[in-house]
Amino acid sequence: MVDQNTSHAAHEIDALMALHPKGFDLSLDRITRLLDRLGNPQDRLPPVIHIAGTNGKGSATAFARAALEAAGLSVHVHISPHLVNWHERFRLGQPGGGKLVADDVLADAIRRVAEANAGEKITVFEILTAVTFLLFAEHPADAAIIEVGLGGRFDATNVIKEPAVSVIMPISVDHEAWLGDRVELIAAEKAGILKPGCPAVIGWQDSDAARDVLIDTAERLDCPYVVYGQDFYAYEEDGRLVYQDGDVLFDLTLPRLPGRHQYANAATAIAAVRMAGFDIGHRAADTAMQTVDWPARMQRLTEGRLVELAPAGAEIWLDGGHNPGAGMVIAEELAAREERDERPLFMIAGMIETKDQTGFFRAFQGLARHLYAVPVSDSDAGVPNDVLAALAREAGLSAEPVSSVASALQLLRDTWKAGEKPPRILICGSLYLAGEVLRENGTIPQ
Questions:
Q1: 249 domain residue, yes or no
Q2: Exposure class string for 186-201: b at 16+ Cβ within 10 A, else e
Q3: 327 lies in the same domain as 203
Q4: From its phi and psi, is residue 304 left (phi > 0), alpha (psi between -120 and 50) or beta?
Q5: pLDDT score of 379
Q6: pTM assigned to the model
Q7: Residue 347 above 60 pLDDT?
Q8: Would you state the pLDDT for residue 2?
């Protein structure tokens, strides 16, 4: 476990953030210049699985990693954003399972990249992307899974010339200021990670318009491609997950990540690994379903400092989803749980200004008994809790502002009536909030 107060890497990143602009630079000029000075480490990576999408790309990353490691392969993994510690973004593959990068190794890589940049204008995300490539090029592994930060076409990770496979997960409206306000415009940006002649996997898409843009782009670039629901499938049958494509049929254990939406995510990851040329058989795929781990995505919190504040026997879930598409799949999973085990649902939510708050909350109308709106202290863009409560009421929810997640849990415990069935509690709305919760609860991702 990394202590951010004593982390050398965190101090290096803090120094960079004081020097360089926050946010994103939607061009590849800066990162290309920097990587050239570093000897173009992005050209010396093991086979790359490159993953974009609005929702589900983190889950697909986790499933793909679990499948490859179950097959005995070593896998580098880059994710964005992190939840608690910067180190979560860099997992270095090794036999027996990858590990988050050691603090001294990360700090050294950051220093070398910053020196190569020589103080020129650049974003911190671009520097950290260069750090990713440097680390992954200098440490041997069998594969690298690289998650896109924002969009696709101009994301700093999109300098990989020939990925083993490009994967595009479900697309919905998010980051409108950068990517556009229509799903087909966003799909066109995400499709920017497709490379001429390189394999592509198109995951489940709620929007036909988005799917059409992705297929048209793959065909224009002469990419061998497969599409979820057309070339590969996943469905539940007799309490098992059935995966099928043109060559194999796997009868698998249901994924340990909760939610029916994870069936499509798991299937897309299996298809991606196979399209990338890795021979993943039934045993590795089944093991992956049982071992996959992805914090803050319908994560059940069963112990920790915050859990102890809740009513005895409460069922507590944490999810960092923050757009209407995520709201729909979270609400669907909670509704399914309600059918199996009736409990009153309470929400504790914090969100940032750039998200569609009412669109996210609307999915829970008629499902949640009450919502506690909390501030997001880890972000300058957090919506004030009184404003967020008003937005939740606009979406049809009963809501009130409280000062913190801990206060909401204590309030629930103090007002809970003896004899009433313990509540189901969803803490949601932001990955920043999810990170705060994991840190305060003492359950930091490893």
A1: yes
A2: bbbbbbbbbbeebbbb
A3: no
A4: left
A5: 86
A6: 0.94
A7: yes
A8: 61
In a domain? residue 254: yes
9 contacts: CB under 8 Å, gap ≥ 6: 86, 87, 103, 106, 107, 110
What does the block give as tokens for 353? 């200004």
> 283 with 353, same domain?
no
Q: How many domains does the chain have?
A: 2
| Euclidean distance between CA atoms 88 and 86, whole angstroms | 5
Average of per-residue pLDDT values in the chain:
94
- CATH number for the domain that contains residue 397: 3.90.190.20
Instruction: Please check whether residue 38 is in contact with residue 134, taking contact to mean a CB–CB distance below 8 angstroms.
Output: yes
Do 342 and 282 have their domain in common? no
> Can you tell me whether residue 165 is helix, strand or coil?
strand
Position 431 in a domain:
yes
Strand, helix or coil at 119? Answer: coil
Q: What is the CA radius of gyration of the chain?
A: 21
Distance CA 84, CA 439 (A): 6
Buried b / exposed e over 405-416, threshold 16 CB at 10 Å, is bbebbbbbeeeb
Q: Which of 435, 368, 427 is nearest to 395 (CA)?
A: 368
* 261 and 322 part of one domain: no
- Asked, for residue 3, whether it belongs to a domain, the answer is no
Please tell me whether residues 72 and 180 are part of one structural domain: yes
Where a domain ends, among 275, 291, 307?
291
pLDDT single digits (tens) 384-425: 999 999 999 999 999 999 999 999 999 999 999 988 999 999
Closest CA to 398 of 431, 423, 373, 376: 373
Domain span at residue 100 reads: 8-291
Q: H helices then E strands: how many in the chain? A: 15, 17
75 and 203 inside one domain: yes
| Single-letter code of the amino acid located at 377 | S
268 & 390 share domain: no
The residues facing 143 across adjacent strands are 75
The span from the CA of 365 to the CA of 439, in Å, is: 30
**Cα-based distances in Å from 125 to 75, 130, 131, 187:** 22, 9, 10, 22
C-beta atoms surrounding 215 within 10 Å: 18
